[in-house]
Description:
The chain is of the alpha+beta class. Helices cover 19% and strands 36% of the residues. The strands form five sheets. Strands 7, 8, 9, 11, 12, 13, 15 and 16 form an eight-stranded antiparallel sheet that branches.
Amino acid sequence: MTSTTIDTLRFATAGSVDDGKSTLVGRLLHDSKSVLTDQLEAVERVSADRGQDGPDLALLTDGLRAEREQGITIDVAYRYFATPRRRFILADTPGHVQYTRNMVTGASTAELAIILVDARNGVVEQTLRHAAVAALLRVPNVVLAVNKMDLVGYEQGVFERIVEEFAGHAAELGLPGFTPIPVSALVGDNVVDRSAHMDWYEGPALLEFLEDVPVGADPSDAPARFPVQYVIRDGEVRWYAGQLVSGSLRVGDRVTVHPSGEGSEITGISVLGTEADVAYAPQSVSLRLADQRDVSRGDMITAGADAPALTQDVRAAVCHLADRPLRVGDRVLLRHTTRTVKAIVKDLSGAAELTANDLGRITLRTAEPLALDDYAVSRRTGAFLVIDPADGATLTAGMADLS
Length: 403
């Protein structure tokens, strides 16, 4: 038995400046009838004030005043929409190199990334940077949307040359595969409806692909991981509350508490205040154990033989998020699930420092052992944040590499 069928797709858009991300998203929302009448009227008014003949659909996602005034996207814009076949959570991320960290934010939980390329310019440096982020974050599905095909005469050869070039770089970056789709966001070709201008293309329109792409594996099928968030005392009984981030747990299961390594047995499970025999990820639950163990916030409860690695030497791929540089020798905090420990930066793979938006590799030594999974195995329990101990600001996002 597993939990409910996944019917929501989280996806992110990325690409270089002016590749047309916001227009693509606006077209997707408009043509799928996901725009409210007052929203469309507001866009039409702004577009008319600018002297444009028709509505600028990019304004449906460029919601911040600064973005509308400058005609750029400077923040992650989240949009929610649905078709009869699937619900969607969309993160429209900015294209400027100085906002690469925003793409990391938007794509960190995405199951699909759409990387746009302007058909006139082909693959550029920022295209490769966004592909590298998608590979780094292990985004399961990638779409290469070759946009503005109307401006190159809908030429098949242009599309095929861009796909071939991107494929070569994707292999070098470790991107396992991608789906290329030729589109014109401005006109609407192959966004929601198939294009009459590109009869040489036999694949799906973008929305068709989004509706049909398999969504990730059921988290309840993975090894059980339960980071403890709260300890609830009910008289002499202790309940351990948190979210079961993967796997399933049953009353009677033998479990191990990390990092202490102490064993116990589950004697009770509470889901939303109701006792249950079993819990599945991603439910928020409370557990009762047979023994009065010294369990506190930040500990992780696991079941079965497939336990996480206990380590104080953390190697990881990272994206630096803060304006303050990160250097070897810096004393930091490392936050992993519900656990926060002191750490020191031991190595930056030869780099003198990491500055905002840098991608790199890091080695940290923690003051206490962490129950880590490899990020390639679990995006939830293989990810962590590096925190500034002085003010609590997030410095770096890390993806553990235990290989």
